[in-house]
Amino acid sequence: MINVAVVGCGYWGPNLIRNLSNTPGARLSAICDLDTAKLAKFSLQYKDVFLTTDYLDLLKRPDVDAVAIATPVSSHYQLARLALEAGKHVLVEKPITSNVAHAEELVLLAESKKLVLMVDHTFAYTPAVQKIKDLIDAGELGNLLYYDSVRINLGLFQTDVNVLWDLAVHDLAIMDFALGQEPVSVSATGHAHLAGQHEDIAYLTCFFKSNLIAHLHLNWLSPVKIRRTIIGGDKQMVVYDDLEPSEKLKIYDRGANLYDIGEENAIRQKIDYRMGDMHAPHIAPGEALKCNSAHFIDCIVNNRTPLTDGQSGLRVVRILEAATESMRRRGEPVTISRS
């Protein structure tokens, strides 16, 4: 039985508490938050769980084997580092840290301590995204051409990160998990429309060594909520709508090819449009965080590397850091450094 403590009872923490308390092989042993009022809400439902505002005291407890961190991004590094130094396995909410140097340090620390360091890239554990990965790995889409995503809604405005670090991290985690390729450079633009706040709208383009290109549209100021992604290959194309209740994935046998009608002159080349069928594969229902929590416990028990390990979190932060620099330079392309 793995004893797990959850740190942070704000937006995401209660979801972790609920799932980890019901995960086979796990025991919710402690909950930590600086706000006593938030802690009090869990005192009746989880009577045998230790509640505290003192994180360092929690780390000293022998009945805590692992820590799940659901706090603001700016605190991830410090909390995760202290937990790893105390010999605790760590599950940390996305993104893993607010900069590359801190992410690299956590990865090395976890490796040296032989501890599990996992990032809560939740979408990698959804049946829809796992189906997309299966399609790509099986070559069903052919050579990948583009990844195009719109992730917009009205709020929630974050206090410590801009819209890139809040919303783009989802798509970057999906890309890291499913595409099998890493971008080599990025270009990003964005703007803060509310005085004193972070950028609330951004456009991010990722360039790859191949012909693959990715474009993300992120917005906290949209009147509507959209979560739609199109992945195009030279064989088939996939539309992924996370808000669609029944047909989240639609696979289209459509595309365009250039063919030569036999003349030497390139002007005589024609575009051949393929307009095949569409089908929507069955996607089994299920909560991604439930699979995420179970995977975390399994990795600890069986000494396995998580699907979304510290290296995965590091790769995503490298892209975000480069994108932030590009946005500062008003869209100038920035190469993604890899030490």
Roughly what is the average pLDDT, rounded to an integer? 94
Helical amount: 25-40%
Task: Supply Rg.
Answer: 22 Å
Structural class: alpha/beta
Separation of the first and last Cα atoms: 38 Å
Q: Please give the number of β-strands.
A: 15
| Main beta-sheet annotation | 9 strands, mixed
Walk across the major sheet and give the strand order: 14-13-12-11-7-10-9-8-15
Helix and strand pattern: EHEHEHEHEHEHEHEEEEEEEHHE
State the gist of this model.
With 339 residues, the chain is of the alpha/beta class.
Mind explaining what this structure looks like?
The protein is an alpha/beta fold and 339 residues long. The protein has helices at 13-20, 36-43, 55-59, 73-85, 100-113, 127-137, 163-178, 288-302, 310-328; strands spanning 2-7, 26-32, 50-52, 66-69, 89-93, 117-120, 144-154, 185-191, 201-207, 213-219, 221-233, 237-241, 249-259, 270-279, 334-335. The strands form two sheets. It has a nine-stranded mixed beta sheet. It has a six-stranded parallel beta sheet with strand order 3-2-1-4-5-6, with helices on both faces. The chain is built from nine helices and 15 strands. A hairpin with a 3-residue loop joins strand 11 and strand 12 (237-241).
SSE map:
Elements: E1 2-7, H1 13-20, E2 26-32, H2 36-43, E3 50-52, H3 55-59, E4 66-69, H4 73-85, E5 89-93, H5 100-113, E6 117-120, H6 127-137, E7 144-154, H7 163-178, E8 185-191, E9 201-207, E10 213-219, E11 221-233, E12 237-241, E13 249-259, E14 270-279, H8 288-302, H9 310-328, E15 334-335
Parallel strand pairs: 1-2, 1-4, 2-3, 4-5, 5-6, 7-10
Antiparallel strand pairs: 7-11, 8-9, 8-15, 9-10, 11-12, 12-13, 13-14
Helix pairs in contact: 1-8, 4-5, 5-9, 7-9
